[in-house]
Design brief:
Blueprint (H helix, E strand, L loop, with lengths): L2 E9 L3 H12 L5 E3 L13 E2 L9 E2 H15 L2 E3 L3 E5 L5 E5 L4 E9 L3 E3 L5 H5 L5 E2 L2 H4 L7 E5 L3 H11 L4 E5 L9 H9 L3 E4 L2 E9 L3 E9 L5 E5 L2 E4 L3 E3 L30 E3 L11 H19 L2
Parallel strand pairs: 1-2, 1-8, 2-5, 8-19, 10-17, 11-12, 11-17, 12-13
Antiparallel strand pairs: 3-4, 6-7, 7-8, 9-18, 14-15, 15-16
The structure holds NADPH dihydro-nicotinamide-adenine-dinucleotide phosphate.
């Protein structure tokens, strides 16, 4: 149990957190960054990234995050592997306490806790989680070599996962609740052109089928337009239906929108509490891109520095 004192505490270790740290360290603020449960954030469970500038060849999400971490360490960010459990923003300096019993006393705080994967909310989905139901193709796709799998969702993540799985599995059924994909055009084209991927349009998963401990054997799909139900046989189901912000910690303390994303001042990362900033996916659900989160981390850090020098 350690008591840390710092000018700047950064909560979260995705692109926003690391970038905020890099800027702050280079400004001599000696920031402390608390990583959270999933060091490196959402990108560590993404396959290849080909739209982060500076990498002419695609780079793996995990590798990109490891490089950001290394860069943060190299410029002097103090990294602490821990999870903030409680924050007291009622007066300055702010006091945050962690799962491991550490206390962080900070003149300013940058929140970069990101957003986590969403689930369908079916009992059968919960029952087979880890037994055929997965939230990460990169992590679990390996187990489905030569098998039939399904992916739920119509965004870039679903498209990404479907394409990744098509390289491994025998077949991929993409289940989407509407009749057009939300994914970028280029991703849509790749999915629709891929002979291994079949799309079930206007469909949702009504039930995941299987038996324990063997796991998933199929799913009941429901057509949302006709109400018609049908069964498909699959060995694995990958849920890729978006994210929810990691802001439970700040409920009743910081302003947030209906979905729980932190509200910041226009063109700024400043929250409703002076000296508390929010950067990345936790305050911007619209873009959810690594490069945007990194940019946001930079803004938060520059704003925080200005605040500290006031
Ligand atoms: P999105 O919010 O973009 O898409 C979620 C998808 O899931 C939508 O198609 C949505 O349907 C569907 N959905 C949501 N809730 C349910 C539900 N309860 N039942 C069934 N379907 C549901 O999330 P993503 O995770 O795909 O992407 C998040 C962000 O990350 C995006 O901005 C994306 O562009 C970005 N991203 C970028 C990548 C890259 O550049 N390589 C890779 C992966 C993600 P509907 O369309 O009807 O709303």
């Amino acid at each position: 149990m350690t008591e840390y004192k710092t000018k700047m505490l950064i909560i979260g270790s995705g692109p926003a957190g690391y970038t905020a740290g890099i800027y702050a360290a280079r400004s001599g603020l000696n920031p402390i960054l608390v990583s959270g449960n999933q060091e490196g954030g959402q990108l560590t469970i993404t396959t290849e990234i080909e739209n982060f500038p500076g990498f002419p060849e695609p780079i793996g999400g995990l590798e990109l995050m490891q490089r950001m971490k290394q860069q943060a360490e190299n410029v002097g960010v103090t990294l602490v592997t821990d999870l903030i459990r409680h924050v007291d923003f009622s007066s300055r300096p702010f006091v945050c306490t962690s799962e491991n019993g550490n206390t962080f006393i900070a003149d300013c705080v940058i929140i970069a806790t990101g957003a986590s994967a969403r689930w369908l909310g079916l009992d059968s989905e919960k029952k087979f989680l880890g037994f055929g139901v997965s939230g990460c193709a990169t992590c679990d796709g390996f187990f489905y070599r030569g098998k039939d799998v399904a992916v739920v969702g119509g965004g870039n993540t679903a498209a990404d996962e479907a394409l990744y799985l098509a390289n491994i599995a025998k077949s991929v059924t993409l289940i989407h609740r509407r009749n057009e994909l939300r994914a970028d055009k280029v991703m849509q084209e790749r999915v629709l052109k891929n002979e291994k991927i079949k799309v079930e349009w206007d469909s949702v998963v009504d039930e995941v089928l299987g038996e324990m401990p063997k796991g998933v054997t199929g799913a009941v799909l429901k057509n949302v337009k006709t109400g018609e139900k049908k069964e498909i046989s699959v060995d694995g189901i990958f849920i890729a239906i978006g994210h929810h912000p990691n802001t439970d910690l700040f409920k009743g303390i910081l302003d947030m929108n209906e979905e729980g994303y932190l509200i910041t001042k226009p063109d700024s990362c400043q929250t409703n509490i002076e000296g508390v900033f929010a950067a990345g996916d936790v305050q911007n659900p619209n873009f959810r891109q690594a490069v945007v989160a990194a940019g946001s981390g930079c803004i938060a850090s520059l704003e925080a520095e200005k605040f500290l020098n006031k």
